[in-house]
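Quarterly update from the structural biology core.
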Amino acid sequence: MEKLLKLMLDGEALSTEQMGKILGLNKDELDAQMAKLKAEGILLGWRPVINPDYDDSIVHAAIELRISPERDGGFDRLAQRISKFDQVDSCYLMSGAYDLLLFVRASSLRGVASFVYEKLATIAGVTSTATHFFLRTYKQQGYIINKEPHSEDRLLYSP
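Predicted structure, tokenized:
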């Protein structure tokens, strides 16, 4: 199964038939390994990597949260609660200056801001937030976003 996971993570989009040929497995063997990965909670789903420029109406942001750990649940209970919001794509417990790092999306800057002040900041245990809006994506999930700079975008010389 390790080889199957590596192939799925490193390779291009392959059909299960193509993966089976590469790994030397027949369809039933591959299906059994896939079912086992899903049953064990290792394979959670499939998501395509979409060029972020495809839809300019979506705003992406990273939000740093400082939270107070709960007596019996530590950070986990609060992080799980926050992860359930539809706006939250990813939520990570971090070491360093803040406790949680959220990646969120909304239909506007105001949408992200209202999520922060209406939903996050009102949760007991959230002590501070810092929001960073994504301005341009250069690489996402291992894929370079091809945006060749135009020669006229560069200054001829700098002051």
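The chain has a mean pLDDT of 86.
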